[in-house]
Amino acid sequence: MSDHMNETKNIMKKKKILPVGHFRGLGAWTFAFFIYLYVPIVVLVFYSFNSNRMVMNWEGFGISWYLKAFSNNNIQQAVLNSLIVATVATACATAIATIGALVLARGGSFKGKTLSLGLITLPLMVPEIVTAVAVLIFFSSIGMNLGLGNVIIAHITFCIPFAFMPIRARLEGMDTTLEQAARDLYATEWETFRFVTVPLLMPGIVAGAMLAFVISLDDFIITLMVGGAGSTTLPVYIYSMIRRGLTPEVNAISTVLLFFSIAIVTAYWIVSKKSQTKTVH
Amino acid sequence: MSTWLPKSASSRRWLGLAPSYIVIGIFMLIPMVIMGVFSFLEPNPYGGVKAVGSFDAYVKLFFEYDLEDQLVFNPGYINIVWRSFQLSIMATVLCLVVGFPVAYYITLQPENKRNFYIYLVTIPFWTNLLIRTFAWIIILGRGGVIELPLQKLGIIDDSLRMMYSDGAIAVGLTYSYLPLMVLPIYASLEKLDFRLLEAASDLYANRWVTMWKVVIPLCKPGVVAGCILVFIPCIGAFIAPNLLGGGKKLMLGSLVQFQFSSARNWPFGAALSMLLLSAVVVSLIFYARAAKKRALMEGEV
């Protein structure tokens, strides 16, 4: 199809007629869109190298604010908290999502399936501020005060659907013949699961875990409401820095967090691409 | 596994789903029910609630007590609710206008290029919203990236005062949620059969007519999904109104947060959250109906 289309495209280019369905300026519009999408990020990174005290007064290129951010004890503590929360929440949410996805993708149709699917994806539908407030009310009315533990529980809850979606997608794209073959060859149910299903499902699980990790790491509003004094995570700390005044230190630490997220999402992209091509062959 | 798992398929199913039900049920569903109950209680001045039933939180949305203890209409909160809806609708329309041509353009590309474009669209979505909004302060702010060159060139002497306005909030919201508009529209355009466009052109429809009568009706589910995915987080937004609106131009999300931090009126905050939640439920019902209609139409074909 594409060969034929390219051919006609070339002919039409010569005659300066647009092919069917094309519009003039679409490419330029998309280009402008990507500029709009990425300029703020570039600006943020650029100003993190400003050596002036004020973000917007450009003085000269320097990495002094990075050094300052890295040696800031509060930032170190916030990074540590963020990593603890994200790691524990990811592990729990991915485990819960995996067994949930196995039931919903492989359990056939049963009464309550739609309901279960709705429940698991509920955290995606409810605005974050509502979740934050509801969880805050809940913790305070049962008098639960585990510090970082409260934050972790809240994060597990909203990370479940993000881990769930890639795992379910992978399961639905997976064909069951290998599992049937294993059973035919006298593998027990557990062996089939452990040595056939899990390895095949792994790219989905890894992808789900990565999404959950990024979502947990970036969460701000729920952590702000639920977290107490000792459980400041990096986004919450960045927010308090912005409110105190704009120094390039905010940009520096934001840049680091930004590139960390981009790295994980890129890895996710590569993993899920690989798993796609694997299923095709 | 076979040794300790229950035999029947049904109990296995529920065993597998139990952790999800327990975690989301206890830490999301029950909290929302408690929140609903709290909205009908009286506030405790030090935060929390008194166990006294009252409709005050909902009354407060529309009325206030004047000096003689008479209820009088107070438009303050309704204005904030109204502004939230206006700004969210504005941001949704902007996302649609900006995002639709982009999704369409990506669909026209060869497959390997398409994936790369989609990757570029998703990247900002997965990076921190707070940080992305903060970047707009540097761009729109006094002496920022837009003002500075204009000042240097002598085109303006004073600040343009772009920050702390409804416009700044709308730009920030649009920026935050654009990928959520592009992705579902792209997903439905990708399935579009381009031979239909050729057929329309053969039948002497020009490209705009084809767009309006063929492409848009066929990708309507994607458009509706995109609009809802953008509208829901906009209506509950906290970061954009706080950072770009300066905390003075409140929206529902920031008003809710305010009730639980400085104002310490939990029932009122809970009532506002219920209002937000009902807006979400209404838009989801709208979406479900659109999806159902679509399924029926496909069934006919």
Description:
The complex is a heterodimer of chains A (281) and B (301). Chain A contains 12 helices and no strands. With 281 residues, chain A is mainly alpha-helical. In chain A, helix 4 packs parallel to helix 7. The radius of gyration of chain A is 24 Å and the shape is globular. The two termini of chain A are 21 Å apart. In chain B, a hairpin with a 5-residue loop joins strand 3 (63-65) and strand 4 (71-73). Chain B has helices at 9-38, 56-62, 75-108, 111-126, 129-140, 147-152, 166-190, 195-202, 207-218, 220-235, 239-243, 252-260, 266-300; strands at residues 41-43, 49-53, 63-65, 71-73. Chain B has one domain: MetI-like fold (Orthogonal Bundle). Chain B starts with 8 loop residues before the first helix and ends with a helix. The radius of gyration of chain B is 24 Å and the shape is globular. In chain B, 71% of the residues lie in helices and 5% in strands. Chain B is mainly α and 301 residues long.
List the main descriptive attributes of the protein structure presented here.
heterodimer; A: about 280 residues; mainly alpha; MetI-like fold; 2 domains; 12 helices; about 80% helix; globular; B: about 300 residues; two-stranded antiparallel sheet; two-stranded antiparallel ribbon; 13 helices; 4 strands; about 70% helix
> Got a strand count of chain B?
4
How many distinct beta strands of chain A?
A: 0
Q: Say what the CATH topology of the largest domain in chain A is.
A: MetI-like fold
CATH C-level label of chain B = Mainly Alpha
Model regions low in confidence, pLDDT < 50 over at least 5 residues of chain A: none
Output the radius of gyration of chain A. 24 Å
Mean pLDDT of chain B: 85
Query: Approximately how much helix is present in the residues of chain B?
Result: over 70%
**Beginning-to-end CA distance, first to last residue of chain A:** 21 Å
Order of helices and strands of chain A: HHHHHHHHHHHH
Q: Quote the average pLDDT of chain A.
A: 86
Low-confidence stretches of chain B: none
User: Which class best fits the helix and strand makeup of chain A?
Assistant: mainly alpha
Strand order of the largest sheet of chain B: 1-2
Full CATH superfamily name of chain B: MetI-like
What is the rounded Rg of chain B? 24 Å
Q: What share of the residues of chain A lie within helices?
A: over 70%
The CATH topology of chain B is what?
A: MetI-like fold
State the secondary-structure class of chain B: mainly alpha
Gross morphology of chain B? globular
